[in-house]
Structure formats: structure tokens, C-alpha cells
Design a protein that fits this description.
Elements: H1 3-16, H2 22-29, H3 33-45
Protein name: HTH psq-type domain-containing protein
Length: about 45
């Protein structure tokens, strides 16, 4: 998966459920937790 695809997935998950944890996103989409954490912070800072 490309960075943009992963970022889109995380954005959609956060829109649907703002309280979802990074661990849940990582498990659900099989994305490394570190990447989820970094992109989640980037999205929130925009």
C-alpha cells in the first residue's frame, strides 16, 4: 500500500468513528502500528 492509500483509510476510519484507537485501525487494516500513529498525528495537525 502507498502512503496516500493508508492515509485515506485512516481518515475514513476517523470520520466514521472519532474514538477509534490506533491499535484498532492497525489490526483491522493490517497496517503497522507505528505508521498508523504517525499518519494519525499528521492528519490531526492539518
Amino acid at each position: 500500500m502507498k502512503k496516500e492509500e493508508i492515509q485515506t483509510i485512516i481518515e475514513k476510519e476517523l470520520e466514521q468513528n472519532p474514538e477509534i484507537t490506533s491499535i484498532d485501525i492497525a489490526k483491522k487494516h493490517r497496517i503497522p502500528l507505528v505508521i498508523v500513529e504517525l499518519l494519525k498525528r499528521k492528519i490531526k495537525n492539518q
